[in-house]
Design goal:
The complex is a heterodimer of chains A (273) and B (319).
Chain A lengths: L2 H22 L4 H18 L14 E4 L5 H11 L39 H14 L6 E6 L6 H12 L5 E7 L17 H7 L3 E6 L3 H8 L10 E6 L22 H15 L1
Parallel strand pairs in A: 1-2, 2-3, 3-5, 4-5
Chain B lengths: L12 H15 L3 E5 L9 H6 L4 E3 L4 H13 L3 E7 H7 L1 H10 L5 E5 L17 H6 L6 E2 L4 H13 L4 E4 L21 E4 L4 E5 L4 H13 L4 E5 L2 E3 L3 H11 L2 E8 L4 H12 L4 E6 L9 H7 L4 H13 L3
The chains are: A alpha/beta (273), B alpha/beta (319).
Bound molecules: thiamine diphosphate and magnesium ion.
Chain lengths: 273, 319
């Protein structure tokens, strides 16, 4: 997909996400708006995955470690053909496969069951290590929240990845500066991330996580640095694309009322023109 | 005893928890709250406003949170660690074992939104193993209050108690059950309703459902005793033995897996002291499907009528 089409796809996914949160009366809308451009670029430009063979051993892997934004992943997977598009309307309903955090035993295309923060990166290190041991070319991507980087398990994995020289591993940190209850800077500020990751032996790039050209270019296979795991610090906004949600911690898991819903949809529609 | 159950108003026990904690903290400077980016979900905004210096938010870092609390206790503070129960007990279990149970540290662990309170968010967010995990440890009493009155009393008890404890709270509404002047005592069950044909033992969000089940059974001519067993460890052995002897059958209800929780704790006493037929209701050893807490509780046979049905079946097994 060219970057114009990627932008349209991301916009469509945002609208479906807002609608699903509104209808279900729950979801993590802020972090979903923040991560959708990254997910769209990965699934529609960068990664090699096949909905007809979701467990293809040679597939690229994506671990959505910030599992609370599962809805965004479900919609991406439905657009990609892993699940039916109309299944999104079952989100959070009794016995639905689509609960609030992704489950690989239920939903094709999901690699691992995330939800407790700080699990995805160690698992991604294991995946990348296996590919390295088998001398296979597939890549592993993992997306964490920036608040999530406060979990110590991440830093254990960061050390391991660099020790193992996992240049087939890419960690994307969705750096929206907000966590659940407050800004990172007022809680436990992990920023600046670049020098910390560099000190641990990683190759680090910083991008605007809402600019499709920048995302696609930095994730391209030819940008791999031999012998070093790669960290992309993606500067993003929680609630991106919706004026009254953007950069406001209240929208971590708030649900729009009727009027807010209409306004959000109108803004997203306008952006799609 | 046998007072009519009023279920038109349901209360979130977190409110009683924080109101009590704020009162205690006003009187005792040593009391501090420790949390993991959980000010909102633990309802600590009021505490933060009143005692900004005494709210220690370590960020999303549960192992660190429990370790820090142990250090605070070492220096004479009385930390109330407030966090979503699955992450508090699951992620920091070894810190709880070594730093609190084994080291006999004065840390109060408050598991918020335990059981299946986070319903639709899925099994990662359900805390249906916490009785089993913490009950296996010495020195950490495990307590699940049934209503806001008992919650307030348990928090007062915890602040006085010298040593660690695990208080298991929910966010799902429950009616008032215990009398206004109720005082929690560790290891003491409360008989909420007397009966002679069967005993229903429950705690937390299940106690009022047990009371409603007893009312259904009453209409069928079955006399059910209802015991509120907030204290899972230490457990009230005498109340269990008396119930076994007086009613000859015991059914347990818990918002927890039936492996290792309240039902198991009761069964341990029954087997050792006074064997009678038992039925353990709870999550039957699976990860729950998608659904709200109340939906799942019914799904697993713990609606009032579900409990009553299990009780009638159990009675048929009495000799
Ligand atoms: C181990 C653990 N602790 C706490 C939580 C509760 N929680 C869910 S989302 C969240 C904030 C995450 O912030 P961040 O990683 O920055 O994600 P984003 O801003 O992208 O939503 C918290 C604390 C959790 N899911 N897992
Ligand atoms: Mg964030």
């Amino acid at each position: 997909m060219n970057s114009h089409d990627l932008r349209l796809m991301a916009n469509k996914i945002r609208r479906r996400d807002v609608q699903a949160v509104f209808e279900a009366g729950a979801g993590h809308i802020g972090g979903e708006m923040s991560v959708i451009d990254l997910l769209t670029a990965l699934y529609f430009d960068i990664m090699s995955v096949n909905p007809d063979n979701p467990n293809d051993p040679k597939r690229d892997r994506l671990v959505l470690s910030k599992g609370h934004t599962a809805l965004a992943l479900y919609i991406v997977l439905s657009e990609k053909g892993f699940i039916a598009k109309d299944e999104i309307s079952t989100f959070l309903k009794p016995h639905s496969r689509l609960n609030g955090h992704p489950n690989r035993t239920k939903v094709p295309g999901v690699e691992t069951n995330t939800g407790p923060l700080g699990h995805g990166l160690p698992i991604a290190v294991g995946m990348a290590k296996a590919a390295q041991m088998n001398d296979e070319p597939w890549r592993t991507f993992v997306i964490t929240g920036d608040g999530e980087m406060q979990e110590g398990s991440n830093w254990e994995a960061i050390m391991a990845a660099s020790q193992f020289k996992l240049d087939n591993l890419t960690l994307i940190i969705d750096h929206n500066r907000l966590q659940q209850g407050a800004r990172l800077v007022d809680t436990n500020d992990v920023a600046p991330l670049r020098p910390k990751l560099e000190a641990f032996g990683w190759a680090v790039e910083e991008i605007n996580g809402h600019n499709m050209d920048e995302i696609c270019s930095v994730l391209a296979a030819d940008k791999v640095v031999k012998g070093k795991p790669k960290c992309i610090v993606a500067h993003t906004n929680k609630g991106q694309g919706i004026s009254f949600m953007s950069d406001d911690v209240a929208w971590h898991h708030k649900v729009p009322n009727e009027q807010q819903y209409k306004q959000a949809m109108a803004e997203l529609e306008e952006a799609s023109q | 005893m046998n007072a009519p159950l009023e279920t038109s108003s349901l209360y979130d026990c977190r409110d009683a928890f924080v109101a009590t904690l704020e009162d205690l903290a006003a009187a005792n400077e040593s009391i501090v709250a420790v949390c993991n980016d959980s000010v909102g979900s633990s309802k600590l905004a009021g505490f933060r406003e009143k005692f900004p210096e005494r709210l220690i938010n370590v960020g999303i870092a549960e192992q660190n949170m429990v370790g820090v609390a142990a250090g605070l206790a070492n220096a004479g503070k009385i930390p109330f660690v407030c966090a979503a129960s699955p992450f508090l007990t699951g992620r920091a279990l070894e810190q709880i074992k070594a730093d609190i149970a084994y080291s006999e540290t004065n840390v109060k662990l408050v598991g918020i939104s335990s059981g299946m309170a986070y319903g639709e968010l899925g099994a990662t967010h359900h805390s249906i193993e916490d009785f089993a995990w913490i009950r296996a440890l010495p020195n950490v009493p495990v307590i699940a209050p049934a209503d806001r009155i008992e919650t307030a009393s348990v928090i007062k008890w915890a602040a006085e108690h010298q040593g660690g404890c695990f208080l298991r709270l929910s966010r799902v509404g429950v009616p008032d059950l215990l009398p206004e002047n109720h005082v929690f005592e560790l290891g003491c069950a409360n008989i909420l309703r007397d009966g002679s044909d069967v005993t229903i033992i429950a705690n937390g969000t299940l106690t009022y459902r047990a009371m409603m089940a007893a009312a259904i059974l009453d209409k069928q001519g079955i006399s059910a005793r209802v015991i509120n067993m907030a204290s899972v460890r230490p457990i009230d052995t005498q109340a269990i033995v008396e119930a076994a002897q007086a009613t000859g059958a015991i059914i347990t209800c818990e918002e927890h897996t039936i492996f290792g929780g309240l039902g198991s704790a009761v069964a341990e006493v029954v087997v050792d002291e006074s064997p009678v037929p038992m039925k353990r209701l709870g999550v039957p050893g699976i990860f729950a499907p998608t659904g709200s807490a109340n939906f799942l509780i019914e799904e697993f046979g713990m609606s009032p009528s579900g409990i009553a049905d299990s009780a009638t079946k159990l009675i048929m097994r009495k000799k």
